[in-house]
What we know:
Order of helices and strands of chain B: EEEEEEEEEEE
Number of strands of chain A: 11
Structural class of chain A: mainly beta
Structural class of chain B: mainly beta
Oligomer: heterodimer
Mean pLDDT of chain A: 97
Radius of gyration of chain B: 13 Å
Strand content of chain A: over 45%
Number of helices of chain B: 0
Helix content of chain B: under 10%
Distance between the termini of chain A: 36 Å
Largest sheet of chain A: 7 strands, mixed
Largest sheet of chain B: 7 strands, mixed
Amino acid sequence: DIVMTQSPLSLSVTPGQPASISCKSSQSLLKSDGKTYLYWYLQKPGQSPQLLIHKVYNRFSGVPDRFSGSGSGTDFTLKISRVEAEDVGVYYCTQSTQFPVTFGQGTKLEIK
Amino acid sequence: QVQLVESGGGVVQPGRSLRLSCAASGFTFNIYGMHWVRQAPGKGLEWVAVISYDGSNIFYADSVSGRFTISRDNSRNTLYLQMSSLRSEDTAVYYCAKKYEGSIFEAPDSWGQGTLVTVSP
């Protein structure tokens, strides 16, 4: 199975400041079809996960442009340009290049 | 908009069976693959299974393979998860999720609110 490792596991950010979460996979996520199946989700307190980014850098419908994804191969990053209070929750990176689909441990974002 | 409503959760004894359902609306159910993902209390997300739009391709996590069966009824816009030989470690909130458009390898883009399954004597 592909292991997804996130860092940090928690971060506390002042509103308006940037935040960055790293995700590393144990194998390359580039598939033979040329696509990299790396996703980012946010699970707000008491809610279901919601998709932020699909296939490394594509923002899902309705996701604010302060969220951006980057990376390739085994190293990926989610950046929030200016954190807002509504961004609190747990962020998960996820790969589906190879079954089973695997998730990172989650990164808890809190507001200072 | 996409709506996914899970049902069928509850308290069940170890070794028994349970069937979860997920009623889908707001999108053309019969052209999208679907996932089940679970989350143990206070823990992270764990993928369970995926089924293609027509049921012809199915994949399971090793932890449930041979015990759980994912299926769908496109005439009823409903996804199912038949769970048997349940164990305490199967205790979790079970989410059904719509697969992002494209290949079977796309991850979920929309999630239901989940249904809690508790396996306890």
